Amino acid sequence: MRGEDMPIEQKRQEHEIRMIGRLELSVTGVKQLESFDQEEFLIETVEGMLSIKGSGLKLVNLDLDKGLVSLKGKVDDVLYLDSIGQESSKGLLGKLFR
User: What Gene3D superfamilies does the annotation carry (predicted)?
Assistant: First the structure.
């Protein structure tokens, strides 16, 4: 293995979501915490934008150097906001209205 190949392998950050019941949640592979309040966290991950909705949500830990966010509260919804899917639907509409 050449030394120049090693940084490429190390750049790949894993993304994982762990939830204990519906009361504790941790996310790895976090690039940035876009916004958060007691009802929604919006997180940029290596796999895309992630929305976590619930009630009484509280930030427990934020470590962007390690790519980690932890929160507590009642989690109702975990959703990836996939812009790729949105672009595809726009393309389909564009095809229909040619």
Answer: 2.60.40.2000
